[in-house]
Automatic annotation (TrEMBL):
One of its GO terms (molecular function) is phosphatase activity. It holds the Pfam family Fra10Ac1. Residues 31-44 have a biased composition (Basic and acidic residues). This is FRA10A associated CGG repeat 1. It comes from Pyxicephalus adspersus (African bullfrog).
Length: 227
């Protein structure tokens, strides 16, 4: 008969076992609280084990997406368009000639703006806004509508062309601190005038009060000295 004492199976009781266990739990709790206090807001959790393949794959995809986004933002609009076209042909097939428009139907942004531009936009003009009209309206909003620039090249036919100033002309003072005629840069003897501008736009006759900065001699002699 084998004795349990020989194999170490005898159970030993200790008077201090019940007291040591709460002390260990208290120390472990205090260490966790200290770690929580010392943890920085931006500090990531420490992983004791190797990340799962799925977690690593998701992190890799996010990093690749950030790199692609940064690469696309750094490109200009035309280069980005070329990349999208090349990627489409690469993954879905096709030919580059399929993306080329006929020469007769090709229009630039400037052509769209010229076709839909308005000297003054009114409420009824914005009722049915197509993307062409929105493009023209976006250009119109960037103009400075205080002083006008005048085209007097056809003044002998009693025809005058007015347009609003762009940012470059506002910075240089053209039309306000110099003559409002686009072909004149005279800065002496100026006077501001508010005139009634009658024009035909998209088959509709309209009127608008515009402010001009002109040479006083232009109106005294009834004939522009610069045109």
């Amino acid at each position: 008969m084998v004795s349990n004492y020989a194999h170490g199976y005898r159970e030993y009781d200790s008077d201090f076992s019940d007291e040591e266990e709460p002390d260990k739990n208290a120390k472990r709790k205090r260490s966790k609280e200290d770690e929580a206090l010392l943890k920085k807001p931006f500090q990531k959790e420490r992983h004791g084990k190797v990340a799962h393949k799925r977690v690593a794959a998701e992190e890799w995809d996010r990093e690749e997406a950030r790199n692609r986004r940064f690469h696309l933002i750094s490109m200009d609009a035309f280069s980005r368009h070329q990349k999208f076209v090349n990627d489409y042909i690469l993954y879905y097939g096709g030919k580059l000639e399929d993306f080329k428009l006929p020469k007769g139907d090709r229009k630039t942004d400037l052509d769209i703006i010229q076709e839909n531009h308005r000297f003054l936009w009114q409420e009824e003009d914005e009722e049915e806004m197509t993307w062409e009209k929105r493009l023209a309206k976006k250009y119109y909003d960037k103009l400075f509508k205080e002083y006008c620039i005048a085209d007097l090249s056809r003044y002998k036919e009693n025809k005058f062309g007015f347009r609003w100033r762009v940012e470059k002309e506002v910075v240089s003072g053209k039309g306000q601190f110099s003559c409002g005629n686009k072909r004149c840069d005279e800065k002496e003897g100026l006077k501001s005038w508010e005139v009634n501008f009658g024009y035909v736009e998209h088959g509709e006759k309209r009127n608008a009060l515009v402010k001009l900065s002109k040479l006083l001699l232009h109106f005294i002699y009834k004939e522009p000295t610069c045109y």
